[in-house]
Amino acid sequence: MTSLPIWLLALVLPTLAHEHHDELTEEQSSAPIDAILWLHICVQALVWGVLFPTGMVLGLSRSRWHVPLQSVGFLLTIGGYILGHSHGGRAFLAGVHGTMANIMLIPIALQLALGIYLKLHIQERTLRPYAVVAHGIVGKAYPVIGWTQMLFGAITVRGYCRGGHLGQCLAHYIMGSGFIAYGIIIAILLLVGETWIRRSGRSPEWWDSWVIMLWGIVNTFTEHHGSGWSVKDMQHTILGVLWWTGGALGIFLSRNNQRSVVPSLIIILTGWAMSEHAQALMISTKVHSTFGHTLMLAGVARIVEVCFIVPKYTPLEEGDGHSEHTLAEGKDEGSTAASAGRAFRHLPSFLLVCAGLLFMSATDEELDYVHDKGMDHVTYILIMFSVAFLLYTLVVVLINLYSTSGRNDASAVKEHAIELTTPTSKWYAPVPAADEGEAEPMHVIGDED
């Protein structure tokens, strides 16, 4: 088992000599993508987009399927790496995708080594606790690493983001990915994170406001370059000012576990600004407008969720009356209002994912290509919404998998646990504590009556 990493490196290292091109002929850049490269794309998309995130979720839930699935993922990704350096057909300029592929060997080897070490169950009280933490951190980073590398791959295939287009690519891809991550985090908090929110004593808007404020500070001082101020420079810079000023207000209003509509208002104003963003091509104007309106709708949906669906998260209190295993009467989770609320709370998350994908797909190079192919904005926008449906489906499936696998599996709990986790009757309820002033005199055994 310990020779496995060495064996994998022996397979991988020869591929590092794969030739990368600094200049390409017209024939090399326009050659068709061959079957080997298509296989590389499909394998790596499957591994980093589905298998590794699924394995991460199974690891979080302590499922016995975590190790087998991750092992298959490691083998497939090494195979995909070799395929990526063995293809013919179209050639590509040296770029960030190839560099990132080599860098990714570090977390792959590290995670593999940590996994093998943890399976040995040695040094339980010394090194193993630190290895567990490191294994968890690296594993949770895999979806971000995979998303980044797949994005780099798409950029490489099309030859985008070179020369003067780099700044726009960074703005669109980072901000778009940020909106997608925001939507996914909200979905996680909706489905499995409410207990964590209540335990932290901080409302979601408190965390949102901090991120918005810090991002706004960075954006304020990085959007303008040179001496002259263009219209876009002014728009982007004032958006940064909007974010840090609004974020500061949101932090103050969200203190003491209070919910706030300020982050939603910032989202709405940002969406309005983007919908009015003047563009050179009509299709670009339409895509930016739809992105802005989608973002505004997400902000409105979030306001409804904050004000009417879950206006407050009650902090968890210590004591038997708040135990998850107390068989006391609970809230009627099957009520119509509760079900409607849970359904509605998916809307802001999904719309944020849609907005993020629309913004990522709205660079000049992408829309020039779409325009040259004769595609109209309706078709292009609906393609992006279709991708958003697919991505959000994957997200909620993984969240549901966490809730129903490993230690969270209801059948496993019923089989091994002493107490039921779902309150189904009034067999037991804690005795309410009497007020100090109303307490009856205590009788001590042995005292005279």
From TrEMBL:
It comes from the Eukaryota. Keywords: Membrane, Signal, Transmembrane, Transmembrane helix. The keyword Transmembrane applies. Residues 146-402 form the Protein YTP1-like C-terminal domain. Residues 21-121 form the DUF2427 domain. The chain crosses the membrane at residues 36-60, 67-84, 96-118, 130-150, 170-193, 343-360, 380-402. Residues 1-17 form the signal peptide. InterPro entries: DUF2427 (IPR018825), YTP1_C (IPR018827). The lineage of its organism: Eukaryota, Fungi, Dikarya, Basidiomycota, Agaricomycotina. Coiled coil: none annotated. This is Uncharacterized protein. The keyword Ligase does not apply.
